[in-house]
Specification:
Structural class: alpha+beta
Number of helices: 16
Strand order of the largest sheet: 3-4-5-6-11-12-8-9
CATH class of the largest domain: Alpha Beta
Helix content: 25-40%
Bound molecules: iron/sulfur cluster
Largest sheet: 8 strands, mixed
Shape: globular
Distance between the termini: 39 Å
Number of domains: 4
CATH architecture of the largest domain: 2-Layer Sandwich
Length: 576
């Protein structure tokens, strides 16, 4: 059995499922098969797109290295894994090669893996340092990172950078540690000195170097190599047990990662079958509850929160350190009771609060991965400012990335600024709303940065002042403060309680990416105008959902939502 570095950052149960021959498997976009009573979903188009973008980024860097490094750079040709391993070993033995691209390392010790680049150590003993290419940021403004220019991708050329500090990403360090161990096992490691590993990030303008044996930042102050060794040994044991039919070393328990995990249908079915407590309280809190003998939603719902948690019990599931729940016990119990009686929302407060304005605009932005924000949708309501009420979409239908995005963003910003100015002229208060501001703020900032100097693009300070002002309101924290949501806090989960429904039954973030590709002909076919219309309807419904939610939250109708103290334990308090 051979594992790649990804297992070290992956949920343990996922490692089990991926090596259990009896677990169901997804076989592609059009061919989903039964997975132990559950059906695995089609691959997430967002994930597929990120993979394609990452492959493109790696190819661009390979071309760059070839150009910068000349004859000392050689690239392993494409081919079957075994052929690539042989080619890697042959090139590594060639003294004229100082940098080796697309290296496939000899499998062994349960490991397989490849490096985008290996660079030969100088001096006696030789050996190779691994360099990986990733499509996220690996440094931040600051100083102190050890970097070398792309033209000299070698730790001997690294110096403390006066403009960058390291942004340590655990999965990068663990992958470098994996490659470091594989190089050593193959007799290709650097026998002494620091265990250097390099990363080229999204900006692709330098290599950031880390000593994997020394850098702090791993678990409990361990070096990346120590952290890696522990995790890899654990995942190897989990996978071996799964493959050989031995008792499972990892059981499902809901964690944040489940949201994007293709195995969720399988795990959810398992969790529901046993009424697992993690269905309502996930992560560490679920472990802590199990450590107190509360393993089911039913048992949690039956607790009297005034009496506190039961004493710890002796169970292998118990966390090493039980410091009590991160969630308020009263709320955890209310969540469990709501779950059992199918109550979609529970009020945490007497009356929810959302700041309101005389003139109001709901905003929702649609983007495609890191490539661009192609649509800013707005819904104007409230007092008359001489502009038409209702929905407007500011879009570019040139496939992103495109400079035409500067035009659509400038039009959106001009309209929003005009509404604000008109409200101010009339002495009216102005508020604008979005649901979970992270994405909108990221593209507000990103747009002024990328299109600085283009017509109508505001200065960064203007956008920052807007984001910091009380005119820009994120509804998500208001929902979190006001309600417990046993089935999640996404807009599509919450807005139906306000009586809102989406016109398109397939509305959702993943589908919108598929529609966008067809709308602009991203996969080579003719652009499909009906998909543009579908995206506009979807975006309009999202802003209408925000509007419906906040007007409902500030009306008396919201008082019909049960308060957490209203939820009583079920009469039958038998604990399973
Ligand atoms: S759904 Fe959750 S518990 Fe199951 S494998 Fe995925 S991350 Fe792990």
């Amino acid at each position: 059995m051979l594992l790649d570095a990804a297992v070290t950052t992956r949920c343990r149960r996922r490692v089990h499922l991926e090596h259990d021959p009896d677990a169901g498997r997804s076989t592609g976009a059009t061919d989903v098969e039964d997975a132990g009573g559950a059906v695995l979903p089609e691959p997430d188009p967002g994930v597929e797109m990120r993979l394609a973008d990452a492959a493109e980024h790696r190819a661009a860097l390979a071309a760059r290295f070839a150009q910068l490094l000349g004859a000392s750079y050689r690239r392993v040709p494409d081919g079957a894994r075994g052929e690539r391993v042989e080619a890697t070993l042959a090139l590594a033995a060639d003294e004229s090669v100082a940098a080796l691209g697309a290296a496939e390392l000899p499998p062994g010790g349960g490991r397989r893996g490849h490096a985008e680049l290996l660079v030969r150590a100088a001096g006696a003993g030789g050996g190779w340092y691994p360099v990986i290419v990733v499509r996220h940021r690996v440094s931040d403004p600051g100083n102190g990172a050890w970097t070398s220019p792309l033209a000299r991708p070698h730790p001997s050329a690294a110096t403390p950078d006066p403009e960058r500090k390291v942004r340590a990403v655990a999965r990068d360090l663990l992958r470098l540690a994996h490659l470091h161990r594989m190089l050593a096992a193959a007799g290709l490691g650097v026998p002494s000195g620091p265990a250097w590993g390099g990363v080229v990030g999204l900006d692709a303008d330098c290599v950031v170097w880390t000593d994997l044996a020394a850098a702090p930042g791993g678990e409990a102050g361990r070096s990346p190599l120590d952290t890696y060794d522990r995790r890899f040994a654990d995942r190897l044991a989990v996978a071996t047990a799964a493959r050989t039919g031995a008792p499972a070393l990892a059981e499902p328990s809901r964690i944040t990662e489940c949201r994007r995990c293709p195995w969720w249908p399988v795990c959810e079915a398992d969790l529901r079958r046993v009424d697992d407590v993690s269905l309502v309280v996930r992560g560490e809190d679920a472990l802590r509850l199990r450590g107190r003998g509360i393993t089911t939603v039913r048992a949690l719902a039956a607790l009297d929160p005034r009496r506190g948690l039961p004493e710890p019990v002796d169970t292998p599931d118990a966390p090493a350190e039980d410091t009590g729940l991160g969630t308020d016990l009263r709320e955890a119990v209310a969540l469990a009771r709501a779950w059992r009686s199918d109550v979609p929302l529970v009020r945490r407060v007497g009356r929810p609060e959302v700041p309101r304005g005389d003139v109001e605009v709901d905003v929702d932005m649609e983007s495609l991965g890191e490539d661009g924000a192609y649509l800013w949708g707005v819904l104007l309501s409230g007092a008359d400012v001489g502009l038409a009420h209702g929905y407007r979409g500011f879009a570019t239908w040139d496939p992103v990335p495109t400079r035409d995005e500067a035009r659509s963003f400038a039009a959106f910003w001009a309209w929003l600024s005009d509404v604000r100015a008109r409200a101010a002229e009339r002495g009216l208060s102005f508020r604008s709303y979005c649901y979970n501001e992270q994405a909108e703020n990221r593209w507000l900032r990103g747009s002024v940065e990328r299109f600085a100097g283009e017509p109508g693009i505001p200065p960064a300070e203007e956008v920052e002042a807007f984001i910091a002002s009380d005119a820009w309101i994120d509804l998500f924290p208001a929902v979190s403060d006001s309600f417990l949501c046993p089935h999640g806090k996404g807009l599509k989960r919450v807005a139906p309680s306000a009586g809102f429904g989406w016109r398109d039954p397939e509305a959702g973030g993943e589908n919108s990416m598929r529609w966008y590709r067809r709308a602009v002909g991203l996969d080579g076919e003719e652009p499909d105008p009906s998909m543009r219309e579908r995206l506009l309807v979807y975006n309009e419904d999202d802003v209408r959902a925000t509007h419906a939610l906040r007007t409902w939250m500030t009306s008396d109708a919201v008082l019909a939502v049960p308060h957490l103290d209203d939820l009583r334990a079920e009469p039958d308090r038998t604990v399973a």
